[in-house]
Design goal:
The chain has 10 helices and 3 strands. It has about 325 residues and is mainly α. Strand 1 and strand 2 form a beta hairpin. The radius of gyration is 26 Å and the shape is elongated.
Length: about 325
């Protein structure tokens, strides 16, 4: 993911949410609508979430240290996971509680034009933020569907902003429906039902975000396309005849670790093997620029030993396959 693209989407969402939060709290003060209160807290939580994403992006830029030799790229994953916790607790659980209380103790909405006007303004502002996130995501999404993009993205910022903005737009529609039905029926219970639905929606989005960022925190391999490019780059057909086994791991959204046991000719000299490894590393970095940490271990592949070994992934490894297989 382009860091600048992600930052533009975050800043757009932050500005929209701060303005929306203020307007919703003002509308709640004048109308007493619980949907407005829940939506105000939701927008305030979203603003905090965007601040967390910006902090995570800044911290991830720190240089590697002896204590953290692979750098701080995963800071972005940690802060994205914190976003899911905030969205679940501050946004979702609060809205569920407020909706339950309003259903038990309903009251009429006063000065209806405040919540309706604010909701219309919020839909426009959130639509602008959502449009920015979609535009930035389309530059990276390629032919992937939106669900595939959210599941496979290694950079968490755009998926987080996309889900937040999508949830916000649905939540605003629910709030508008709740307020509208409360005004039409003169029954404040509908306002509480709308608030309850907003809370359930936020909890579901928070769970999706938590699941995706948890996977990134645990460590995900490179995408299929990048793996194929790396395999093609490693094998030169001369000194490096195949890949015995290979592992990849994202150290951060834009930093990839590659570790592979490669098959070389039994009669190659140490100098020839070293030169072949250096050339393979250069080819890998050219094909996949984010592959910044590369460890290649040479070995003599023996088909007979591989067949007899109990573990096909152990030395001398499974079949030394050519690139792309």
């Amino acid at each position: 993911m382009s860091a600048s693209g992600g930052t533009r989407a975050i800043v757009a969402a932050l500005g929209a949410n701060l303005a929306i939060a203020v307007s919703k709290f003002v509308a709640f003060a004048f109308s007493g609508s619980s949907s407005m209160l829940a939506e105000g807290v939701h927008s305030l939580a979203d603003s905090g979430n965007q601040a967390l994403l910006l902090i995570g992006g800044k911290k991830a830029q720190r240089e590697a240290t002896p204590q953290h030799p692979f750098g701080y790229g995963r800071e972005r994953y940690i802060y994205a996971f914190l976003v899911s916790i905030v969205l679940f607790s501050v946004g979702g659980m609060f809205a569920v509680y407020e909706g339950y209380e309003k259903i038990k103790h309903p009251h009429q909405i006063e000065h209806w034009y405040w919540p309706v006007g604010v909701l219309v303004f919020a839909i426009i502002a959130e639509g602008f933020s959502f449009r920015t996130a979609i535009k930035e995501s389309n530059e990276l999404r390629g032919k992937l569907s939106w669900s595939q993009f959210i599941r496979r993205a290694k950079a968490p910022e755009l998926p987080v902003v996309l889900l937040e903005d999508f949830g916000a737009l649905i939540g605003l529609a629910l709030a508008l429906a709740g307020v509208g039905l409360a005004l039409l029926t003169d029954d404040g219970v509908w306002d509480g039902i709308g608030t309850l639905c907003i809370g359930i929606l936020l909890i579901l989005i928070a769970l999706v975000l938590a699941a995706e960022t948890k996977s990134l925190l645990l460590g995900e391999a490179a995408g299929v396309d990048d793996v194929q490019k790396i395999e093609t780059a490693i094998v030169d057909g001369d000194t490096v005849t195949g890949i015995i086994h290979m592992r990849t791991l994202h150290l951060g959204p834009e930093e990839l670790l590659v570790a592979a046991k490669i098959a070389v000719q039994h009669d190659d000299t140490a100098g020839e093997v070293a030169a072949a490894i250096n050339a393979a590393e250069a080819r890998i970095r050219k094909s996949v620029p984010i592959a910044r940490v590369i460890y290649l271990e040479p070995d003599i592949y023996s088909e007979a030993e591989a067949a007899e070994g109990p573990d096909p992934d152990a030395t001398p490894g499974g079949p030394a396959r050519p690139a792309g297989h």
